[in-house]
Design brief:
With 373 residues, the chain is of the alpha/beta class. It has 3 helices and 20 strands. Helix content is 16%, strand content 18%.
Amino acid sequence: MLSVQENQRRLRKVVASMSRPPLYSFYLLFCFFSLLSGIQSDDLQIIMKLKSILLQTSNTSAFDSWESSNSMCNFIGITCNSQGSVTKIKLSHQNLTVVLPFDFICQLQSLEKLSLGFNNLHSPIMDDLKNCVKLQYLNLSNNLFTGWSVPAEISSLSQLQYLYLDGSGLSQTFPWKSLQNMTGLVQLYLGNNPFPFPKEVLQLTNLTWLDLCNCSIHGRIPAEIGNLKELIYLGLWGNNMTGKIPVEIGNLVNLKKLSLSHNSFIGKLPVGLRNLTKLEVFHFSMNNLEGNLSELRFLNNLVSLRLCENELSGQVPAEFGEFKKLAILSLCYNSFTGPLPRNLGSSAKLYIVNLSMNFFTGQIPPYMCKQGT
């Protein structure tokens, strides 16, 4: 038999063990909310400091809601997560004209999306950008940057999936080697910048969109372009590229849009283009291509076909008359001959047709005139 004292002692232990977890849990909960409050306070201070910097020379109403009396997560252009931390800043088209303060922006520890396109941001992009390590989306397109600061290193942005730097005045100081660490990139827009062809992009096998238009690129398309088998869009128009189009481009079976106009490509349309059956836009105008269009007769998903100002010849394939989606057909200034397919336009809704300056014979297909101009 246990004594009364022993029973009382055991009872006290049981009571103590029952009461400790709630107190302990309350303590942990208190610590959590204290930490959360501290994070929100830090983010608010950074956001308000960012406002003061951006307003120094910018004439915009974008920050009218950015008042400390309002909830930070209700500021226009700001998105928070469930913990109240800033995850997105969207300030495109806001007439911002300052030097971008990445030293403040990248202190936002949960920042995943930064969209500042179509402003007048200027000066070099500072090295502090490398501290935005959680960024998945970065849009600095159509600004007035003059390059990158030295040292320029952004390989730490390994979580980037979307990178838009087109039309930003960047130069060859772009940190190309940093791309090698961004293996998750899905969309890469670098058009309208004076770049060489960046071989580093040929290793980004997850890319679905690659825009290198109007970059003054010289030389040939590397055969390794065929490694980017996830590409849906490939844009290289408006460069100074030469040589033959590599047959490896036929490996890009997911392509829907291929734009290589305004270059100096030579030779025939490569064997294997018939594999690109998902193609909807095929633009090769203003090059020096020759030969016929036999490789294109299998591309029955075409919506827009532009091949003006080349040296192409032969007849328009009869299969073109069966293309049900074809809306734009531009074959001007070539050396095509023979009659046009009689049913051209019978299945499609052609609204732009330019076949001028060729050597076609016979009658104009009756269906084409109903829709075309």
